TrEMBL record:
The lineage of its organism: Bacteria, Pseudomonadati, Pseudomonadota, Alphaproteobacteria, Rhodobacterales. Keywords: Oxidoreductase. It comes from Litoreibacter janthinus. The active site is at residue 253. Pfam families: Aldedh. GO terms for cellular component: cytosol. GO terms for molecular function: succinate-semialdehyde dehydrogenase (NAD+) activity. GO terms for biological process: gamma-aminobutyric acid catabolic process. Coiled coil: none annotated. The keyword Oxidoreductase applies. Residues 17-475 form the Aldehyde dehydrogenase domain. InterPro entries: Ald_DH/histidinol_DH, Ald_DH_C, Ald_DH_CS_CYS, Ald_DH_CS_GLU, Ald_DH_N, Aldehyde_DH_dom, Aldehyde_DH_Superfamily. This is Succinate semialdehyde dehydrogenase. Gene3D superfamilies: Aldehyde Dehydrogenase, Chain A, domain 1, Aldehyde Dehydrogenase, Chain A, domain 2. Belongs to the aldehyde dehydrogenase family.
Length: 480
């Protein structure tokens, strides 16, 4: 199959494809079938330090490369992604399970991130700040932070690296990346692409293996000046603690618990379409997925009826089959977690109006599910579901809905459907979230800063802010 071009069973360190020193490997399986599709090296701290050596050595060369050469490399990277979009998407689907259409979209948005940062870096201007007296100039300039450690999850194994690697390389930082063990090939493909388009040796290094050992070596090393992580809040907090000893710059894209508010004046059909994309994209496994759907009394029944029809039309199956819209969950633990949420809701008065069970064919598939009459004491009101389960809560009063929406430690994405302009501005002020979708269930775009507040993380990815996160600001006072 064409995806085999990018199925690399070795790690990319200092410009060479290598195994673990021990020779040990880890199996990689297709969650839709359970079959082993290949192996990757089980690397640890020694190999990670070697990768950091290579990245540190490559740094001056990449940082000192003329801007238009760095931009040229990014353009080549963009073209390589688009030229190989189908084979990279197949690889992604085979290791992660998402439907091919979504995998094609993920490779496409990854390429867009590369193009965006190739454009944005040309406008990464500094400042000359007015001095208070004559004979002085105050310069504010921007510089690449240095070697960047990147740790990424399985749910968007290609695009989560795109929005970290692209700005890093754009400004001249070098990279040591550790993709998730469940989905390593889409991460290793970034090494293959960097090699293909001619990045200097050591500019991009990609390792697989023990999260604790690779992560530990990245966090301990003073040469790694920044760490960017996407994943669970629990691991993110541990990395924040570990970063203290060497005071690293951090970007943390952590968990979410997105509220999705539907007010009486909403266009109910539009709200249902928005809820479908927000809740069921990637089988509910995105950190910006609607986790709690709050619907006002006046449209509650109509919303549930239409949502049920849309959910029952979803085709579940192997992501490689034509027309499939819901792939498997990443593993059986994820299935069990969804089952626990449903069982808890049922004991507290929730009603399963569709779905609720494992899907027939034996692997980690789960039926797209709706639970109605959800309440604030149910587990999913506080915890991230990360699966195809849509809890629908009922509300009467706008202020109650906003208070419930904010009643969480997370603050990543939120959504609201309403046509009242005054309410839209009130939501903009009151919702304690880094991102708000008004009459839109799909808000991720390269042009805008993606990121959360509260325990959903630190820093932004995308937008102009997503470039600045890879730069240090330096102030130089010149007296003459
Ligand atoms: N915000 C988001 O986008 C995501 C949120 N999640 C949430 O987290 C839950 C658990 O998912 P999971 O994949 O286990 O997420 P994790 O946070 O455990 O994994 C994300 C990445 O961190 C690595 N990692 C794990 N432990 C450490 C460590 N101690 N030091 C350094 N790196 C580490 C993982 O490596 P390895 O794969 O080798 O374990 C992976 O590369 C999900 O159910 C979901 O709720 C998950 C993924 C993405
Ligand atoms: O789940 C994430 O961590 C990122 C979601 C990206 C997207 O919305 O496409």
């Amino acid at each position: 199959m064409s995806y085999s071009k990018y199925l690399k069973e070795a790690n990319f360190i200092g410009g060479s494809w290598v195994g673990a020193d021990s020779g040990d490997t880890i199996d990689v399986t297709n969650p839709a079938t359970g079959e082993v599709i290949g192996t990757v090296p089980a690397c640890g701290d020694v190999e990670t330090r070697r990768a950091i050596d290579a990245a540190a050595e490559a740094f001056d060369g990449l940082a000192g490369m003329p801007l238009m050469e760095r931009v040229g490399l990014l353009w080549k990277l963009h073209d390589a992604l688009m030229d190989n979009q189908k084979s990279l998407a197949e690889l992604l689907t085979v290791e992660m399970g998402k439907p091919m259409a979504e995998a094609m979209g993920e490779i496409g948005i990854g390429a867009q991130y590369v193009r965006w940062f190739a454009e944005e870096v040309r406008r990464a201007k500094g400042e000359i700040v007015p001095a208070p007296s004559n004979g002085r100039r105050f310069l504010v300039t921007k510089h690449p932070v240095g070697v960047v450690g990147m740790i990424t999850p399985w749910n968007f194994p290609s695009s989560m690296l795109a929005r970290k690697i692209a700005p890093a390389l754009a400004v001249g930082c070098t990279v040591v990346a550790k993709p998730a063990t469940a989905t390593p090939y889409s991460g290793l493909a970034w090494g293959a692409l960097a090699e293909e388009v001619g990045y200097p040796k050591g500019a991009v290094n990609v390792l697989t293996g023990s999260a604790r050992k690779i992560g530990g070596a990245i966090m301990d090393d003073p040469r790694v000046r920044k760490v960017t992580f996407t994943g669970s809040t629990e691991v993110g907090k541990e990395l924040i603690r570990q970063s203290a000893d060497t005071v690293k710059k951090l970007s943390m894209e952590l968990g979410g618990n997105a509220p999705f508010l539907v007010f009486d004046d909403a266009d109910v059909d539009a709200a249902v379409s928005g809820a479908m994309v927000s809740k069921f994209r990637n089988s509910g496994q995105t950190c910006v997925c609607a986790n709690r759907i709050y619907v006002q009394d006046g449209v509650y029944d109509a919303f549930v009826e239409k949502l049920k029809i849309a959910v029952e039309n979803l085709k579940v199956g192997d992501g490689r089959e034509a027309g499939v819209e819901q792939g498997p969950l990443i593993d059986m633990d994820a299935v069990e977690k969804v089952e626990e949420f449903i069982a808890d809701a049922k004991t507290k008065g929730g009603t399963v109006v569709t779905g609720g069970s494992r899907h027939g064919n034996g692997h980690s598939f789960f039926e797209p599910t709706i639970v109605t009459e959800a309440t604030q004491d149910m587990k999913f009101a506080k915890e991230e579901i990360f699966g195809p389960l849509a809890p629908v809560f009922r509300f009467t009063d706008e202020d109650d809905a906003i208070a419930w929406a904010n009643d969480t430690d997370f603050g990543l994405a939120s959504y609201a459907y309403t046509r009242d302009i005054g309410r839209i501005f009130k939501l903009n002020e009151k919702l304690q979230y880094g991102m708000i979708g008004i009459n839109s269930g799909l808000i991720t775009t390269v042009e805008a800063p993606f990121g959360g507040v509260k325990e959903s993380g630190l820093g932004k990815e995308g937008g102009s802010q997503g470039l600045e996160d890879y730069q240090d600001v330096k102030y130089t006072a010149v007296d003459f």
